[in-house]
Amino acid sequence: ASDPKLFQPLTLRNVTFKNRILVPPMCMYSAKDGHVTDWHLVHLGGLASRGVGGICVEATAVVPEGRISPEDAGIWADSHIAPFRKVVDFSHAQGTKIGIQLAHAGRKASCHAPWVQDRAPKGTSYVAQKEENGWPDNVRGPSELAYHPKYPTPKGLSIKEIDDVVQAFIDGAHRSEAAGFDFIEIHAAHGYLIHEFLSPISNGRSDEYGGSFENRIRLLLRIATAARAAWPNKPLFVRISATEWVEGPEKEGNEWKQWGLEQSALLAQKLYEIGVDLLDVSTGGNSSHQKIPAGPGFQVPFAAEIRKRVPGLAVGAVGLITEAQQAENYLKEGKADVIFLGRELLRNPDWPLEAAKKLGVKLKAANQYERAWYKL
Ligand code: FNR
């Protein structure tokens, strides 16, 4: 039997990930004014020392009003760099690559952390009010369409403000470089600002940023092009939602009704031409009417289809991937180039060591943990 693909290295633009297991961005709701804390060092450091090939730090806001919650990480100020640097240095000392997801939450900003939402009567507590460190009056989107009646109604960005957002992503890329990150991921998924521009459901603009497919993808193409120029030598990832899971077709006659796989594949080709190295293929998050048929690997077919249609573009699969053999099969069958494992790694940070054992190989991780798996 040939060596498992899961444990073969992957090189993108001079950065080599030691294996194909990546940690997807996961908000920890534990930052202070955007600064990552000891929580992040311990949490991400723990993952870095247990054998993953790479980590993507949580959605990190390029402007303060672009945070999902008041406790989100940020990178809008130089003071954010030093605490990131500690996490990056520790990760590198473990032989683990680490990147950062640059984000703007758009119309889904100023919300509570999920466990705060859980504590309140159902549906009443999405929004972090001013007295709770929120900014419900300063929430931005493509146009004045709210995600849900219980969410803030966004102000549509002016052309000048769109230019400022693009600049904020460039500044974020430069600060990411100063912090020592190995890759950047642009968050264009899950109903946050860039996805809101992509989708006819959330983009009510009638200028050059709304309406046609070309207009709706314009903001992302601008940001990706600018990020590529500001970050020329290291991998650039983009995360998209390849479908919105809203009932009805993606296209009716000549009219796009919602964002979906057809537009995602066309977009992926353009991102590839700009120099994006990897597309991280997720789904959903832009409509409160979505119906997600969640199940093992339910988003993998979208990754696989895009990978087939855009040869050369590396693709990441994510979503309810939990078993070593399952992950290995997706790679062997050519459905993806890397596997992102989210909640499974929260439940079991030693998953990579255990998976290596199951697939019959030894994985190099921190001596302190590795011996617990291989020296009995
Ligand atoms: C997430 N997810 C997520 N996605 C993203 O693009 N940026 C983010 O900051 C977050 N934050 C986040 C926090 C937490 C606690 C969870 C559980 C998830 C989504 C995540 O990256 C991943 O796509 C999903 O969790 C699906 O993969 P798993 O968990 O089924 O492997």
Automatic annotation (TrEMBL):
Gene Ontology terms for molecular function: FMN binding; NADP binding; NADPH dehydrogenase activity
From the UniProt record, list the coiled-coil ranges: none
SUPFAM superfamilies (UniProt xref): FMN-linked oxidoreductases
InterPro entries reported in the protein's UniProt record:
Aldolase_TIM, OxRdtase_FMN_N, YqjM-like
* CDD domains documented for this protein: OYE_YqiM_FMN
User: Does the keyword NADP feature in the UniProt annotation?
Assistant: yes
Q: Which UniProt keywords apply?
A: Flavoprotein, FMN, NADP, Oxidoreductase
Domain NADH:flavin oxidoreductase/NADH oxidase N-terminal positions: 5-359
List, alphabetically, the Pfam families matched: Oxidored_FMN
Q: Does this entry carry the keyword Transmembrane?
A: no
**Cofactor(s) listed:** FMN
Alphabetical list of PANTHER family matching this protein: NADPH DEHYDROGENASE C23G7.10C-RELATED (PTHR43303)
Q: What is this protein called?
A: NADH:flavin oxidoreductase/NADH oxidase
Q: Which organism is it from?
A: Coprinopsis marcescibilis
